[in-house]
């Protein structure tokens, strides 16, 4: 390999350098004084002053530290240890200032940046600060948060009315869905009546009747042939498909045909073959409605041809067949061969009938349906023109075109003579319909001597529709008489008046029909559903049976029923229980001896209310509470207070009911933050002012407090929120409400929250758009997977644990779970004073709850895709992004950005970092045991796991570890300080007993058991105790007895190439070369571990070996089948020696050598022992993690690994004799120092670990990557 030539090259460079520079020993760069001072002596080490201790030569300042945003969890599960710039930025070594990555700020990059600085619609606060604030509105909970990110994780606390990660989206009004009230007291009232349609008729007729006469003639055109009588048959067709007028049999609107008629058929008879009987084939009624006569006829036709035959005269008589009858037609003519017969028909006289048009009038001002119209009602008088000959379908269309007539079913009856009857049934009009009218004779005319045509309308039957009144009773109180169609507002007022303690009544009203598929059959019946908003007690509403107050009429079988849970009518009825949603009630007690002086200043929702005096009225108290924007409406009931004042000597209790503030309202308090001039004080001294809140706390003189439990929902769960305008688009049958949610007329429409139903609710919004199931009786959509929204109108976006949210206190139920770094250690609900302990919910702490798009993105409801804020990624925006995009080239040279870590690492989560455990010896990352880390950011917080032992150049074996938030910087090669007395260090880096500086000049070897020996000429002796703990290279042993196959080894997470079981120990493709192909293992020495076969010797003029086992010198010829290596002086890196086979140079040029018989990785020795191979780490100092088996397919044996010697050599950045260029990962060595081989000689490690013999010695530039130092 050119070893002699390499030695001569190094010597030449050294000689050239010595001629130019004097020798000098000093600290690197004089410690950049005055940043540090040099401790001259045997070690020449810089002692740097703060803050210049970031580099051995005092060239870099250190930067502030903070908990790392991302790091590797420790064996005890703890993480987020202190790190420079919090591992979210880089330290500017010249200034000591952190340069933060995008998304981070602070002197140590220890705070996250709020998105868009909250867009001017919010405040950027830490998660701890948000947890501790409380105002009942913007900050709804009060808790203590102390996890690792408490003062690091910042987010937007949006102002009222705004939401989103950057506070750019508007919130819509919140309200309480009246359909989801919990188990409240619900009763119903329903009226009943039979249904009957209105039926009217229109008769069109005249005074005089003329019957139709038609003729059928059979002519024999060859009478001279003497073939009379005529032989043959024919049939007649009667086609009424286009007939109109008064022809009754024309109603069939079909084509009828007689059976065959003989050419000489008689006019009448009883044998079934007469013309009159044949007419029965057309219609059974015709046989009695025609007369027939027959005559013989002779003559000459129009062509002068004589004929003879028969002629039948058919007269259509009777009331059922009058008018113009369709002409009979001849068909199926069957004549004997040779005959010439013709059959013809004609109308001799047409029947008379009425024709023309008639104007039908509907006057809605005379009589309008009592319950309204099925669709929209129009007041007025309307008419339509109807032709006399109209068919039933035409009549339906024309009558239905009149406003307020929704659907009719018409029958046309032909009454004979010139008349016709239209029978009209109003199938979709409620109740008693106004009678139609005719404009007589204005457009009717006659046909064939008609006279006095008339049009008359008659009501056959009136439709049913309810009318009258009814009354209800609750206990001993009775409502006034309520009309049959009482509005829901009036119904609520009437029932609420029965007892003033109800706290609100909600009533819905809808029409009631027996068949919901036929709403047009409504008879005026209604269904009222009564819900007691403010009570959890069971009540019983009853019907008053009194003819003076309950009297329904207008239909048949009228009735009224009241439904309860025991006897339901609507199946919505239920008895109240503790789940009922109720309004908040707070109790205020005040007592003050007279004359009472002073004032009271109250606070609510963090706002100071107007000052009140002891003599303030209840209206004053009400006005003060309602003066703040958070409160819409309260009701105040006073107990034991005839004067109606705030306080008196006997004491007053006020029950304050929050009618328009669903949910749990924060308590009213005496304001301690008010200016001193208006703070509360009462005199003369026997005074008391107390506010009670929470469930079931009694006032001194009456009343009881209770927590509000009505659930707030955006748009009340009955509308869609427009995030741009902040306005609710209410679903069908829902609209704006009053401020209370009771829907009384006085406050109608003042809150645009969609909490008021505008019609009876019997279905879900938009029927859930076919994307969900409608759940009754609340009629709330249960959306199918993938859809959300109150009407399932939006696609769902993925959810993730929120990175930033408001910590919530959760009651300690005894099922709490303790864990490391809990997000909420304890919390106190300021409203109730209850202290809560830490716990988890669904795997999450009481903060960082599941949120759409992780709370760091906006959900596109049309596509179900999250649009993430900057710094977050993933389909659910639940993960942080890794810094450091690297520019790569795509196809065609297109520039692409690869995500994260600058191409020098992988983006992993904290959980994955925990799984990449740290070796207990080296703290290096490699696949191993799983460490216990179960914090909230386990699968959310991502960072760069940077490449280790990466090539940084310029020397072949120069390696460093990339580091930083984006892996853009790299550590420099490390090694032992050549200026210090080399020492051994323990696993924690503590120095052991120094290696003595007065060692023999001759090379020394130390066996694995610490026994020392030297080579001939130096005298064999045992080393002192100090020498026995001298720094040592780490050595590991591989044992394998397999017969075939291959293995892949792993070191520090880096896999080796395939290594065959018969691979030799040394050589270009040997085990040593295979291991050195891994980045993490730059330079190793590999040799058989069997001690009896190890030879170490010196080469002078004869081949001499020293047997370390026999402790004697042997002189012999190097065996031909053995493998020998040589080394440069004091080097630990051995090179192949070819000896008699053709070593380059003479043996006298080589100073030492080791030889072993040939051995493969796996196999069995002649003694039956498995092959054992020792791997000595030359370039990696200190203790090393074990080599591991990654995979194998070995046959007939096993492979094992063990540590023989734990390394104890020092490893310092740039060997403490240079400055590290962190941007390149290269050492800039101080003068007199250069790259070493790990043992203080020149080499390819780039670590400044070699001290040149003469000042100014510079290691020559190395060859291109891919060639090693030994190739020179």
TrEMBL record:
Signal sequence segment: 1-25
Entries under CDD domains matching the protein: EGF_Lam
Name of protein: EGF-like domain-containing protein
Domain EGF-like stretches: 76-110, 760-793
Keywords: Disulfide bond, EGF-like domain, Signal
Cystine pairings recorded for this chain: 100-109, 764-774, 783-792
Pfam family, one: EGF_2
């Amino acid at each position: 390999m050119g070893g002699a030539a390499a030695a001569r090259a190094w010597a030449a460079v050294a000689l050239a350098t010595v001629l130019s520079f004097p020798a000098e020993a000093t600290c690197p760069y004089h410690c950049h004084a005055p940043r540090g001072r040099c401790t001259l002596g045997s070690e020449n080490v810089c002692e740097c002053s703060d803050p210049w201790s970031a580099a051995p030569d005092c060239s870099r300042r250190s930067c502030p530290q903070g908990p790392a945003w991302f790091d590797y969890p420790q064996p005890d599960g703890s993480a987020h240890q202190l790190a420079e710039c919090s591992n979210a930025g880089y330290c500017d070594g010249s200034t000591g200032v952190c340069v933060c990555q995008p998304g981070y700020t602070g002197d140590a990059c220890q705070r996250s940046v709020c998105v868009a600085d909250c867009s001017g619609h919010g405040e950027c606060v830490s998660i701890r600060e948000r947890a501790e604030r409380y105002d009942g509105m913007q900050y709804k909970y009060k808790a203590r948060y102390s996890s690792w990110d408490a003062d690091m994780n910042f987010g937007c606390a949006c102002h009222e009315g705004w939401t989103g990660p950057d506070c750019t989206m508007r919130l819509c009004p919140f309200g309480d869905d009246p359909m989801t009230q919990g188990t409240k007291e619900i009763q119903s009232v329903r009226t009943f009546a039979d249904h009957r349609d209105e039926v009217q008729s229109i008769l069109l007729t005249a005074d005089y009747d003329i019957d139709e006469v038609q003729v059928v003639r059979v002519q024999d055109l060859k009478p001279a042939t003497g073939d009379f009588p005529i032989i043959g048959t024919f049939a007649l067709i009667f086609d009424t498909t286009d007939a109109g007028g008064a022809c009754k049999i024309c109603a069939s609107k079909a084509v009828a045909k007689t059976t065959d008629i003989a050419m000489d058929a008689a006019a009448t008879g009883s044998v079934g073959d007469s013309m009159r009987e044949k007419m029965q084939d057309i219609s059974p009624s015709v046989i009695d409605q025609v007369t027939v006569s027959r005559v013989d006829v002779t003559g000459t036709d129009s062509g002068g041809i004589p004929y003879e035959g028969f002629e039948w005269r058919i007269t259509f008589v009777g009331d059922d067949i009058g008018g113009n009858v369709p002409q009979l037609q001849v068909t199926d003519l069957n004549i004997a061969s040779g005959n010439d017969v013709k059959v013809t028909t004609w109308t001799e006289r047409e029947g008379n009938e009425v024709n023309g048009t008639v104007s039908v009038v509907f006057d809605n001002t005379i009589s309008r349906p009592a319950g309204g119209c099925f669709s929209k009602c129009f007041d007025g008088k309307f008419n339509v023109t109807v032709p006399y000959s109209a068919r039933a379908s035409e009549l339906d269309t024309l009558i239905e075109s009149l406003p307020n007539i929704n659907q009719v079913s018409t029958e046309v009856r032909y009454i004979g003579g010139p008349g016709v009857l239209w029978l009209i049934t109003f199938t979709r009009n409620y109740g008693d319909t106004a009678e139609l009218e005719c404009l007589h004779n204005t457009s009717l005319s006659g046909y064939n001597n008609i006279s006095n045509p008339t049009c008359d309308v008659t009501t056959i039957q009136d439709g049913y529709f309810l009318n009258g009144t009814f009354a209800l009773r609750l206990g001993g109180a009775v409502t006034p008489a309520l009309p049959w169609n009482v509005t829901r507002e009036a119904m609520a007022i009437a029932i609420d008046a029965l007892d003033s303690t109800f706290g609100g009544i909600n009533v819905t009203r809808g029409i009631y029909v027996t068949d919901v598929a036929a709403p047009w059959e409504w008879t005026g019946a209604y269904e009222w559903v009564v819900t007691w908003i403010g009570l959890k007690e069971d009540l019983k509403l009853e019907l008053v049976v009194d003819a003076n107050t309950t009297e329904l009429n207008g239909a048949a079988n009228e009735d009224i029923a009241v439904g309860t849970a025991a006897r339901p009518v609507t199946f919505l009825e239920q008895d109240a229980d503790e789940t009922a949603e109720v309004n908040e009630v707070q109790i205020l007690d005040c007592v003050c001896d007279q004359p009472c002086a002073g004032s009271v200043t109250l606070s609510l929702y963090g706002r100071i209310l107007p000052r009140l005096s002891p003599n303030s009225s209840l209206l004053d108290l009400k006005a003060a509470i309602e003066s703040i924007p958070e409160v819409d409406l309260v009701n105040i009931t006073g107990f034991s207070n005839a004067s109606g004042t705030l306080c008196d000597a006997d004491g007053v209790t006020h029950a304050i009911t929050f009618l328009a503030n669903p949910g749990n309202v924060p308590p009213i308090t005496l304001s301690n933050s008010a200016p001193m001039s208006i703070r509360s004080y009462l005199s003369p001294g026997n005074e008391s002012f107390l506010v009670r809140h929470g469930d079931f706390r009694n006032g001194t003189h009456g009343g009881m407090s209770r927590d509000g439990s009505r659930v707030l929902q955006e748009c009340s769960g009955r509308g869609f929120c427009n995030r741009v305008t902040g306005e609710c688009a209410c679903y069908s049958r829902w609209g704006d409400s009053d401020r209370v949610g009771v829907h009384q007329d006085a406050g109608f429409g003042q809150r645009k929250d969609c909490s008021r139903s505008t019609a009876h609710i019997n279905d879900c919004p938009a029927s859930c758009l076919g994307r969900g199931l409608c759940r009754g009786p609340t009629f709330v959509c249960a959306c199918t997977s993938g859809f959300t929204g109150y009407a399932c109108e939006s696609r769902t976006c993925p959810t993730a644990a929120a990175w930033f949210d408001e910590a919530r206190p959760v009651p300690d139920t005894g099922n709490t779970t303790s864990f490391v770094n809990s997000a909420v250690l304890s919390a106190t609900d300021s409203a109730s004073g209850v202290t809560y302990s830490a716990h988890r919910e669904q795997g999450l702490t009481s903060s960082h709850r599941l949120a759409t798009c992780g709370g760091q993105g906006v959900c596109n409801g049309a596509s179900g895709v999250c649009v993430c804020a900057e710094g977050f990624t993933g389909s659910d925006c639940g993960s942080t992004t890794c810094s450091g995009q690297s520019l790569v080239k795509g196809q065609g040279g297109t520039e692409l950005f690869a995500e994260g870590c600058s191409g020098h690492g992988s983006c992993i989560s904290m959980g994955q970092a925990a799984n990449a455990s740290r070796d207990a010896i080296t703290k290096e990352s490699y696949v191993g045991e799983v460490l216990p880390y179960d914090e909230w950011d386990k699968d959310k917080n991502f960072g760069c796991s940077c490449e280790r032992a990466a090539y940084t150049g310029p020397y072949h074996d120069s390696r460093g570890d990339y580091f930083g938030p984006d892996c853009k910087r790299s550590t420099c090669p490390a090694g032992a300080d050549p200026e210090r007395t080399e020492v051994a260090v323990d696993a924690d880096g503590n120095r052991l007993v120094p290696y003595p500086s007065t060692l023999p000049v001759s090379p020394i070897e130390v066996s694995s058991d610490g026994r020392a020996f030297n080579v001939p000429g130096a005298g064999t002796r045992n080393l002192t105790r100090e020498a026995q703990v001298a720094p040592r290279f780490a050595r590991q042993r591989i044992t394998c007895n397999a017969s075939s196959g291959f293995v892949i080894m792993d070191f520090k997470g880096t896999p080796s190439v395939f290594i065959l079981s018969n691979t030799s120990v040394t050589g270009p493709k040997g085990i040593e070369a295979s291991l050195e192909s891994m980045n993490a293992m730059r330079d190793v020495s590999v040799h058989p571990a069997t001690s009896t076969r190890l030879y170490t010797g010196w080469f002078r003029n004869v081949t001499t070996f020293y047997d370390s086992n026999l402790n004697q010198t042997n002189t012999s010829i190097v065996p031909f089948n053995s493998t020998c290596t040589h080394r440069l002086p004091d080097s630990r890196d051995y090179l192949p020696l070819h000896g008699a086979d053709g070593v380059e140079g003479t043996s006298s040029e080589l100073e030492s050598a080791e030889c072993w018989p040939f051995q493969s990785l796996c196999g069995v020795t002649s003694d039956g022992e498995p092959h054992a191979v020792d791997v000595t780490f030359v370039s990696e100092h200190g203790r090393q993690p074990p080599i591991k088996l990654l995979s194998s397919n070995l046959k007939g044996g096993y492979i094992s690994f063990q540590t023989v010697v734990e390394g104890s050599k020092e490893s310092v950045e740039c060997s403490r004799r240079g400055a590290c260029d962190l941007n390149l990962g290269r050492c800039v060595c101080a003068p007199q120092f250069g790259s070493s081989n790990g043992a203080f000689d020149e080499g390819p490690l780039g670590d400044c670990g070699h001290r040149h013999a003469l000042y100014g010695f510079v290691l020559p530039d190395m060859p291109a990557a891919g060639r090693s130092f030994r190739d020179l």
